[in-house]
Each structure stands twice: as C-alpha cells, then as structure tokens.
Amino acid sequence: MSPGNQYKNEESTTDSLPPTKVGKVRQLFGQMGNVSSGIVTRFTSREKPFYRRFWFWAILTVGSGVVAAKYVIVSIDKTLPDKAELQAFVREQTLTIKAANGNILQQQGEATREQLKIEQIPDKLKKAFIASEDRRFTEHNGVDPQGIARAGLNNLRSQNVVEGGSTITQQLARILFLKQEKTIWRKLKEVRLAQKIEQEFTKDQILERYLNLVYLGSGAYGVGDAAWVYFSKPVDQLTLAEAATIAGLAPAPSLYSPEQNPVAAKQRRNLVLQRMREDGIITAAESQAAAQEPLIVQSSQPKRLQVESPYFTSYVQQELPKYVSPDVLAVGGLTVETSLDPKWQTAAEAAVTKVLRNQGRWENFKQAALVAIDPRSGEIKAMVGGKDFGKNQFNRVTQAKRQPGSTFKGFVYATAIATGKSPYDTYLDAPFIVDGYEPKNYSEKFRGLMNMRDALTRSVNIVALKVLLDVGFAPTIKLAHDMGIKSELKPNYSLALGSNEVNLLELTSAYGSFATQGLHVEPHGIRRILNRQGQVIWSVDFKSQRALDADSAAIMTWMLRNVVAEGTGAAAQLDNRPVAGKTGTSDEARDLWFIGYIPQAVAGVWLGNDDNRATYGSSSSAAYTWHEFMAKAIEGMPVEKFPERPKLDGRKGTIKAQPIKPKKILNSSSDDNDEVNSSDGDDSGSSRRRRRYQEQDDNADTPRRRRRSYQQQENNTETPKRRRRFRTVENDSSASATEPSRSRRRSRQVESESPTPQRSRRSSPSTSNSSGSASTSSWRDRLRPGSSSQ
Q1: Hey, which residues are catalytic here?
Q2: Is residue 442 a contact partner of residue 683, using CB atoms and an 8 Å limit?
Q3: N or C: which end of the chain has fewer CB within 10 A?
C-alpha cells in the first residue's frame, strides 16, 4: 500500500472514533502539556530561584548527610585494627611469662592470672554480668539503641548515672583497642569496632574475652582474679550473692568495691539480683535469699602480683630484646613460653636453701647459685641466682663472674685428649717453676709420677700446668669457647688452674658439651614468644654445633666419672646412675664449685660471698648441693648410660697442639724441696679439720656412703699450721703462685691464682737447673719418662 493511502487510513481511523472519546484524549494530552510546562516554568521562573526552594535544600541535606556518614565510616575504619588484630586475647602493655607446663611465672601490666574458658565460668556469674551490663546481649549486633534509650531514661528518672548504654561488645572493644578518653571520635570508633567484633566472633567468644579482661578493682582483671581478690576462692565456688557482687563492680570498681565501700557494694549487688529476677534468670525466692546474705570479704593479693622463680623471669626479660624488636616490646601484650621445669625449679630452690641454712652457717658463705640445663637442647630447666631476690636482684648465675678454679681443668685435659694424648700419659708431680711462675698443690706435697686421669681425679695443679704447656694456649682457649665459654680467656700460665673469670651459666653449658658427645647448643630459656593475637612471632631454633670430637668427649666423660667415683666429687654420687663432674675452688676458698652431669642433664653449683670474702668450706659442699638437687630432679627419669670409652690405641688427634716454649723452666728435685708423696692420698694434707663430716676420696669401694659424712683419709701427716678453723677438706689444689710473703704460709692456698706470675718463696732450685733456662726437649724428657703407659 502506498504511503499516501496509509496516512489516509490512519486519518480515517481517527475520524471514525466517537466524538466523546476524541475529546477525552485531547483533554489528557492537554493536561500533560500543562504539567510539563509548569515544571519548566518553575525551573525557569525568575521570580524565585530553585536554590531558594525548600525541596532543594531537603534533597541536598539528605544527600550530604549520606555522603558525610559514608566518609566518616571510611575514615574510622582506616584507624581501626585489621581483621587479624581483632583476634587479640590480652591487653596492651602486658607481659606474661609461662613455665614449660603452662603455669604462669610472672605477669606485668593489666593482665589476668587465670584465663578461663567459657565452660569454666559458672552460668550464674555469666548471667549476672549480662543482667547488669547488657540485658539484650544475645539480641543486638554490637550496638543496642534500645539499651541506650532505656539507660538514658533510667538515668533521668534517678537523676544519676545508674545504667550505661554501652554493650558488652563495646566494652570489650574499648578494653582491647581504645584509650579511655571521653570524646565523640572515640565513641564512634567503639561502635564500629563492636560491629566488626560481632561479625567475627560468636556471643560466647565475646563474653569469654570480656569476663577475662574486665577490670573489677583492687588490681583484679577478670572474674578469676576478682573471685580470688575479694573472696579467696575460685569462680566455681562463688555463691549467687558473691557472683552478683562481682558483676556489680564493672561500671565503677572503686565506687562499688566491697573492701572500700561495703554499703554501696551491697546496694549494687541487690540491684543486680533484682535485674536477674526481672529477666527470669533466678526466682524471687533465690533473689530474696541472696539479698539477705551478709557481705563477707576475704581479701587476697592479686595473683598477677605473685612472681615465681624471679631470678629466671628477670633473666628472660633481659633476653627478650635479642628476639623481638623494640617496637614490639613497646606495644606489649606478649606471652613468653619458657623451658623452666617447675619440678626441677622447686628442687633447685630447696637445695640452695638447705645448703645456706646448714653448711653456709659454719663454712662462712652467704650466697649460692644453681642452674640446670638439658644439654641436648640447651634449654634451661632450673635457675636459682641467689638467696633472696626481694633483697638483692643480682643474678649470680648470669651476672656474677668468678674464678672457676679447677673446674677449668676439664677444658685443658679435653684439649690434650683431642690432640691425641692418652689419659694414661704420665707427668711428674714435683716442684716446678716456669718463667718465674710456681704453682703449688694444695697440701704443698707432691705425688711423683702420675697419669693424666689420676691427676684430674686428684685435681693436681702442677700436672695440669704441664699439660697446658704441651697443648698450648690457643687450642685450649678455642676449645673452651667452642664448648660454650663466652668470657675472655687470657693466655697465661694460670689459665690451667682457672684464673680467668666466667659465670655459672656458661661454665655449666660448656660441661654439657661433654654429656652430648662433643655437641654444643646455646643455652636459652625461651621457647616461643606470642603476640596479643596468640600468633607466634619467634620460636627457638638453636642448632647444635660440633665443639669436640665424640671419642675425645667420651674419654673425658670416663675421666670425669672417676672424679666423682674416687676423687674430689664423691659427694655428688647418685645411686645406680652414672655421674661425671668436676669440683673447683678459688684462692682462699672464695668460690666453691661443682659442675656435674648425667646423659640427660647438666647442673652447676656455686657457693661463696658477694664481697669475695674467704670461706671455710670446700667444693665438697657444692657437690653435695648438686646431689641434693639431682636426687629430686631425676625422680621418674629413666637411667641412661654414658658411651663406652673408645679404644685408646691408634687414636689420631682432631686438634693440633701448639706447645708453649717458656723462656725459663726450673725443676726441683724432691730431695731439695718438699717430700714427694706418690701414694693415692688427696692433695689436702690437712689433718686439722673440725667439720662434722669428712671426705673419703681414696676408697673407691664405698660409692654409697652418706653424702653428708665426708671422711678425709689423708696420707700426709706433716701439715703446716693454719689460721682458720672449721676448714673443710678440699682436694682441688691451690692455683696460687707462692710469694716471698709471710702471710702466704698462714693463708690457705686453694685452686685459683693470680694471673700475674710471682716469684717463689722457696729455696732456689737444685743446681742441676740453676744455670738458667732449660731447653724444651730436656724438661719434656723429664716430664715424660720412659715408663709412660697407654
């Protein structure tokens, strides 16, 4: 059909409509035109601009409010902790140190001693807090507008603040992440945090954290602490009235404290009971009975103020900066998991207390220290740094450096064994001067020819020095450092006799390398460090390092076992269990040592005085203290044997000796000096002992004699007079070089010595050596006679 025909048809269709319908259509189109023209007129009218119209400002206000609210929310969210940090379990600025079994040793800051699980908290206590603080806790999503309105109305009615509008979730957010300033910005952040917390955790998880963190006055953080502080009982023993009293503390702990304001506390308690009754938590009869119950307070100090093993926990705090950054320490909230064994620690404290109470009185020492280590892992299991931490915080395990005396001989002999020497190599114990330095045995007697094993067992000084001359300063010092000695060691002749100062921890750790067949692990007391979210931010990863070859370590253990079985360490023997170790004393018995070990543990003991005054004691007291500790610590521990002694024939050294070449050596014959005593008597030579117990070192057939009855069997009866009474027998020899001083004869000469060589007060050596310095080969020939055996 053509366009013209189509148009005509359309037109005819319109014409065909009834007149009334055509009018209505035209009327409708006219009205629509009038509306649109009116709108245009309003916008284009010059009489009243649109920005002066009400509707414009209404739309602008609503839109701006939405944009501003969105901007504020975004700005607040940027300042809030991220999703991971919402997992925080503890407050900032706190530190919790735990023992190996999880027991809390020490807490600092706003911390709770008892972290209770929600299942451990009685239902009546949980519901008392809900009734008191947040009656719609299970219904809202973190913020409760109804609760805010109700609290405001109740406060207006009472003309006082009797109810708060913050929910439990808001309070938890404020405790964990916000400061206590009263600003609108802080309140907005609190609301947003509460909403985020509600999205991340269940109601039970929120309630558990709140009940463990809320401050309830008198130093109590959390319901566990509050139950102890106010009623001296655990939470599961609280009565309904006591639970309501604790729940009523949250809004104002000082105002409602039952200790400081019992009347207000009782009124607050009854209000909480009333709300519990109104909410159907308890019956009217239960509420009335609890309200009539008298408020009886049994106060106790907060458990978080109690410190267990203070010397160890102070050591841990000093170690923390090695493992975490200053920023992390500043924020706090850390939990430190340590290696301390509570059983071992109790045994160590008891042993130290006992020796100070008994031997310390008549042997004139006022301080003692003990440390025990698992040598396989390097973990510190027990540490007692002194007598009374409350009076003196000085830790004698880690901070005190003292002369180790003959305990250092272990490293000298270990170096000799590692160079390929046999423990049966012999040396002459006779008067000996090297470059003007003359060591003396304790008894001023000499034994003649003896092998290295026996010399170590009897702690003979002259043989130890001659062994050092054969192996050299450098190898000995290097081995001692590799085994765990951290202190500086100076290359002088007195090194062999322990004149260089060390601390008890490093000395004990070094002897642990013998127990592990030559492997050394850095001693440490921290296993893991956790942040506020419970995430591990540091964990121990110390690897063992080879310090001494296994065969040499096994031979040294065999030699050190003989020290305990037949020598100066007899007081350390344990029934049916092999023990190895070494005693030591310094000059005038100022320091008394024993370092001993079994395959699973190494422990060190030091006895002495902080002012370095001489004692009347001997290292036997230190060995006895070691025995007292280990006898308790090893209860239930399986017996392990030390490795068998390797074959001595055909051994090759793993360390190269660097013999020392002295400028002048003088050997005195026994005829021109003190008599040579070649018997197996001890070095003491002191028949004037006044102690109740004596030491029997030479009888190897009495391994089970009582440790407190040390019978000293002395073969030397010609002993010089001493000034001191009550001197205990010390088999470890003197390290002191003799002086031309009249006081030296009256002074007791023990193991340690001054590092400065001193001239002898004796007559000049025999004419055979008076010409001056002997050649290296000549004195060594005399030191190693042809009768040396393997």
Answers
A1: 133, 406
A2: yes
A3: N
Which helix (H) or strand (E) segment holds residue 759: the answer is none
DSSP bridge pairs for 379: 374, 524
**β pairing state of 334-338 and 95-98:** parallel
| Helix %, strand %, coil % of the chain (to 5) | 45, 10, 45
At 383, give phi and psi (nearest 5°).
Answer: -155, 120
Q: Which two tokens stand for residue 272?
A: 């909480």
- DSSP strands (E only) in 698-770: none
CA distance 712 to 705: 13
Is beta strand 519-520 parallel, antiparallel or unpaired with respect to 545-546? antiparallel
pLDDT in tens, 597-653: 999 999 999 999 999 999 999 999 999 999 999 999 999 999 999 999 999 998 999
Integer CA distances (angstroms), 550 to 195, 395, 507, 673, in order: 63, 33, 20, 42
pLDDT for 87-120, tens place per residue? 888 888 899 999 999 999 999 998 888 889 999 9
In the chain, the amino acid numbered 688 is R
Which residue bears the tokens 């009400």? Answer: 54
Q: Give this prediction's pTM.
A: 0.76
Amino acid at 551: D
- How many Cβ atoms are within 10 Å of 1's Cβ, its own excluded? 7
Q: Are 762 and 431 within 8 A, CB to CB?
A: yes
Nearest one of 531, 538, 528 to 88, comparing CA atoms: 531
Length of the chain: 790
What type of residue is 706? R
Other beta carbons less than 10 A from residue 123's beta carbon: 9
